[in-house]
């Protein structure tokens, strides 16, 4: 089929009275859609014949969804295209015919639609252009709603289909008998084959297309200059990773290139109430507004730009209906317009993937309003897109530096984890192994020594269990899988329970003196009792670890505000350097280093404490005057606020009676 004749040539030979006309791609697209819409608009389609020939598979893919809908109206749908990836002969929801790229169909655009109430055909051949200034694709061909011409065109295309797919002979004969017989060329009585609205729509579109072409040729030089301006702005903003420099370069080049009285750029988000004018370009004689607070929330123009996600251009601000309605917001904007001498206004948003990054505004300040050109609007929208990309790149670079720091911290955490877990696991495992091997190989070992071996193995097994439990606890807290069961509880009872855990854990060892200053007058707190005890136990265990046995540890409580209690655990131990007071709450932090420690531990106890306090919305911090000056760990916990702020009269009277009764009894005894 490489030497197959053009369908257009065959049609003109069959019907010499026809004359080909010139069409543009946009016109053909509109014509094709209008013809397809006729089929889709029919409630009772009557099984029409539709033949569509696309030049390439990529053009077909753009319209495939429409032909799936058309196939619901008819079983006589044929689609032809030159395959590029997946297009092939198929009999699915409609017939597809894959012609060879050498076929003349690869240079043609065809659509034939024949039904009971309508008939139309579009038979075109692409015409190559030698004009380097004109990038529009042009076609020559025939478009008509004449039923006889449509019938001849359909016959030519069906013959071409049979060459590629002879197995469709029976189906094509059915279509021929239904639509292509001479008796079918005249529509039934009362049927109008010339829909005037349809014709008018197409003629109007074609005339507009021709006018656009003439206007494009006239303004070719202006477009070329604007393209140069866009390229220069794009190159300039892409060279920098500084957001301030990017916006300043853009505002200066746009203002100079477009001859704008005032051009401003400012950063903002969709929810901001006010922005500050940060970058500005001014023509001579125009007042500056740099640094001005610019209203956004009460600005109907800004709100419309955000809602529509597109630019707006106002040729005459005095005639704009959005500012004609009385109201506090329009009044403020009118005052702004008057003070800034704005006669014509254009607002162009800077978006990146639905995120508003900023706004560009162009103010024409006189002597008379101006009409914003579409080309200028298109240019600044393109610049806004480039600025959005450049700003995101600048933010990404800043974030990359932060991520690098975080990665370095994670690497240090990983190293600490390996060193700490290796040390904390290897030591008890070695001890357990030695003890068990001794018990297994020394059957004559004295009973006292056997008991010592067993106790040692059990202690180290408990140490390993606690290590694993701490890792699981921290993982559970950080992943957010903890269910917090907050309830009114007594802080005094929680402190006593944690002290009993500490005494049981350190039984038989010398530990610092612990002074509990929390008494029964302390208000009830709103917290998860189990986690609060865990927090107190870990803080006390940490204080014991770094305080000598002749030192002292105290637990005190204060009420910094009506809704919170502040618990403080103070020790007289080695203290913490001021620059490490925040670091001690990091995971795997070891003050002495992972391999040079005089005390055991994994370095995650305080990290667990921070996660627990965060669970009820409190705060935790450490304070110390430095080495050998002790440490204070503080955390806050919410108070259970009573529903009735004060006691009733009956409660006051009862309290007084209880207070008087003991005094009367004591006087009777003295007598």
Automatic annotation (TrEMBL):
<dbReference type="InterPro" id="IPR033415">
    <property type="entry name" value="CHASE6_C"/>
</dbReference>
<dbReference type="Pfam" id="PF01590">
    <property type="entry name" value="GAF"/>
</dbReference>
<dbReference type="InterPro" id="IPR003594">
    <property type="entry name" value="HATPase_dom"/>
</dbReference>
<protein>
    <recommendedName>
        <fullName>histidine kinase</fullName>
        <ecNumber>2.7.13.3</ecNumber>
    </recommendedName>
</protein>
<dbReference type="InterPro" id="IPR036890">
    <property type="entry name" value="HATPase_C_sf"/>
</dbReference>
<feature type="domain" description="Histidine kinase">
    <location>
        <begin position="420"/>
        <end position="641"/>
    </location>
</feature>
<keyword id="KW-0902">Two-component regulatory system</keyword>
<keyword id="KW-0808">Transferase</keyword>
<dbReference type="InterPro" id="IPR019278">
    <property type="entry name" value="DICT_dom"/>
</dbReference>
<keyword id="KW-0175">Coiled coil</keyword>
<keyword id="KW-0597">Phosphoprotein</keyword>
<dbReference type="Pfam" id="PF02518">
    <property type="entry name" value="HATPase_c"/>
</dbReference>
<dbReference type="Pfam" id="PF17150">
    <property type="entry name" value="CHASE6_C"/>
</dbReference>
<dbReference type="InterPro" id="IPR029016">
    <property type="entry name" value="GAF-like_dom_sf"/>
</dbReference>
<dbReference type="InterPro" id="IPR003661">
    <property type="entry name" value="HisK_dim/P_dom"/>
</dbReference>
<keyword id="KW-0418">Kinase</keyword>
<dbReference type="InterPro" id="IPR004358">
    <property type="entry name" value="Sig_transdc_His_kin-like_C"/>
</dbReference>
<dbReference type="InterPro" id="IPR050736">
    <property type="entry name" value="Sensor_HK_Regulatory"/>
</dbReference>
<dbReference type="Pfam" id="PF10069">
    <property type="entry name" value="DICT"/>
</dbReference>
<dbReference type="Pfam" id="PF00512">
    <property type="entry name" value="HisKA"/>
</dbReference>
<dbReference type="InterPro" id="IPR005467">
    <property type="entry name" value="His_kinase_dom"/>
</dbReference>
<dbReference type="InterPro" id="IPR036097">
    <property type="entry name" value="HisK_dim/P_sf"/>
</dbReference>
<dbReference type="InterPro" id="IPR003018">
    <property type="entry name" value="GAF"/>
</dbReference>
<feature type="coiled-coil region">
    <location>
        <begin position="393"/>
        <end position="420"/>
    </location>
</feature>
């Amino acid at each position: 089929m490489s030497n197959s004749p053009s369908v257009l040539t065959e049609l003109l030979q069959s019907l010499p009275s026809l004359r080909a006309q010139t069409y543009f791609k946009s016109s053909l697209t509109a014509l094709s859609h209008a013809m397809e819409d006729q089929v889709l608009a029919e409630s009772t389609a009557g099984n029409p014949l539709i033949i569509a020939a696309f030049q390439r598979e990529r053009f077909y893919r753009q319209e495939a969804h429409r032909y799936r809908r058309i196939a619901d109206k008819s079983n006589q749908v044929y689609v032809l295209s030159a395959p590029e990836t997946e297009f092939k002969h198929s009999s699915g929801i409609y017939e597809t015919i894959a012609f060879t790229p050498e076929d003349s169909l690869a240079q043609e655009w065809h659509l034939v639609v024949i039904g009971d109430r309508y008939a139309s055909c579009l038979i075109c051949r692409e015409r190559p252009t030698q004009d380097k200034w004109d990038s529009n694709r042009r076609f020559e061909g025939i478009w008509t709603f004449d039923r006889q011409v449509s019938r001849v065109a359909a016959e030519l295309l069906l013959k071409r289909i049979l060459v590629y797919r002879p197995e469709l002979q029976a189906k094509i004969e059915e279509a021929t008998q239904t639509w292509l017989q001479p008796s079918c060329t005249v529509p039934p009585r009362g049927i109008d084959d010339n829909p005037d609205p349809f014709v008018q729509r197409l003629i109007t579109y074609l005339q507009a297309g021709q006018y656009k072409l003439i206007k494009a040729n006239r303004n070719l030089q202006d477009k070329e200059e604007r393209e140069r301006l866009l390229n220069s702005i794009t190159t300039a903003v892409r060279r920098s990773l500084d957001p301030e420099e990017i916006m300043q370069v853009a505002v200066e080049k746009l203002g100079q290139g477009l001859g704008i009285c005032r051009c401003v750029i400012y950063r903002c988000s969709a929810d901001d109430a006010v922005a500050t004018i940060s970058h500005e370009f001014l023509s001579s004689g125009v007042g500056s507004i740099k640094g001005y607070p610019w209203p956004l929330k009460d600005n109907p123009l800004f709100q419309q730009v955000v809602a529509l996600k597109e630019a707006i251009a106002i040729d005459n601000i005095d005639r704009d209906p959005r500012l004609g309605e009385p109201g506090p917001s329009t009044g403020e904007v009118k005052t702004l317009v008057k003070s800034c001498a704005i006669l014509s206004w254009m607002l162009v948003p800077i978006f990146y993937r639905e995120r508003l990054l900023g706004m560009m505004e162009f103010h024409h300040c006189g002597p008379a309003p101006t009409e914003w050109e579409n080309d200028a609007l298109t240019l600044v929208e393109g610049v806004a897109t480039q600025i959005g990309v450049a700003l995101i790149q600048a933010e990404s670079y800043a974030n990359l530096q932060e991520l690098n720091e975080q990665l370095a911290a994670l690497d240090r955490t990983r190293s600490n984890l390996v060193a700490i877990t290796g040390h904390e696991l290897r030591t008890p495992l070695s001890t357990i192994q030695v003890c068990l091997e001794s018990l297994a190989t020394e059957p004559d070992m004295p009973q006292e020594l056997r008991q010592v071996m067993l106790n040692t193995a059990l202690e180290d097994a408990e140490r390993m269990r606690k290590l694993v439990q701490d890792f699981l606890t921290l993982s559970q807290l950080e992943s957010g899988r903890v269910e917090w069961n907050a309830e009114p509880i007594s802080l005094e009872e929680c402190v006593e329970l944690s002290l009993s855990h500490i005494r049981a854990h350190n039984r038989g060892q010398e530990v610092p003196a612990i002074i509990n200053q929390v008494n029964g007058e302390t208000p009830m707190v709103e917290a998860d009792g189990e986690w609060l005890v865990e927090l107190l136990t870990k803080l006390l265990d940490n204080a014991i670890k770094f305080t000598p046995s002749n030192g002292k540890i105290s637990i005190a409580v204060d009420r910094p505000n009506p809704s919170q209690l502040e618990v403080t655990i103070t020790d007289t131990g080695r203290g913490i350097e001021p620059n490490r007071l925040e670091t001690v709450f990091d995971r795997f932090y070891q003050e002495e280093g992972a391999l040079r420690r005089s005390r055991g531990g994994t370095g995650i106890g305080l990290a667990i404490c921070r996660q627990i306090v965060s669970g009820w919305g409190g705060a935790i911090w450490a304070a110390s005057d430095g080495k050998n000056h002790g440490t204070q760990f503080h955390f806050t916990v919410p108070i259970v606020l009573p529903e009735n702020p004060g006691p009733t009269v009956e409660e006051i009277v009862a309290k007084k009676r209880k207070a008087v009764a003991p005094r009367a009894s004591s006087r009777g005894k003295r007598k």
